[in-house]
């Protein structure tokens, strides 16, 4: 059985991840180390020692505002610095990986510039000995100039960063919204990246191909729950739920996946 975890809190000081994991019946957690919509420098999670003592698998999610692909220097340069700071703080927290969205370029830009900007991130870090933990790039739901919405875009990004050991996060809601076939998406992604390091198992409030990123309960959304369970079986990777609610809602979802997946 793969690790089944839950996303906890909007900031590092929100709630007790150990207690929430226990109440949900989860084996792991995903946390933020700073405001997900802000540029504040992160610090190791205040519950890091407790999470280690409880034997939880921990993943850290970088702020949503990080966009290292953009040609906007006022966003790209601080994004690169913030990603590096989060990687350091995540490693000190004992995380298994740092998740970051693929980002996008401006409407007027050639997407190749964004892929090249991603490569520069890894090249610069390699000159300093590399990231202190795996950096896991997540697929996204929408955006015409996104780096990781379609299989073609993911392939072009991996041509730029794959040699540096970049990891991949498959978000099922994002894939559904982007029009990717969940029956084959694991094989399709692995054929490009050679790996799936983490699954964000999220259902969707919206129809297939909607380009809308609105998560729903694993067992009560537009995606057939058995299709989500099939993704987990095929991926064979750790799983994090980013679904609405708290332990009362996540508990039944965890129970379903333990049985179905």
Protein described:
The chain has 261 residues and is α/β, with parallel strands linked by helices. The chain has a single domain (4-169, 181-198, 232-237), classed as Divalent-metal-dependent TIM barrel enzymes (TIM Barrel, Alpha-Beta Barrel). The protein contains nine helices and ten strands. It has helices at 17-24, 48-53, 73-93, 111-127, 151-161, 172-177, 185-193, 225-235, 247-260; strands spanning 4-7, 28-31, 57-61, 97-101, 135-138, 167-171, 198-200, 203-204, 215-216, 239-241. Strands 1-2-3-4-5-6-7-10 form an eight-stranded parallel barrel, surrounded by four helices. It has a two-stranded antiparallel ribbon with strand order 8-9. The longest helix has 21 residues, at 73-93. The protein is globular, with a radius of gyration of 17 Å. 48% of the residues are buried.
Query: How many DSSP H or I helices?
Result: 9
Distance between the termini: 8 Å
Strand count, sense and closure of the main sheet?
8 strands, parallel, barrel
Shape: globular
Computed CA radius of gyration, to the nearest angstrom? 17 Å
CATH superfamily annotation: Divalent-metal-dependent TIM barrel enzymes
- The helix content, as a percent range, equals 25-40%
Stretches where pLDDT is under 50 for at least 5 consecutive residues are none
CATH class (first level) name? Alpha Beta
Give the DSSP E fraction (strand runs of 2 or more residues).
5-15%
Order of helices and strands: EHEHEHEHEHEHHEEEHEH
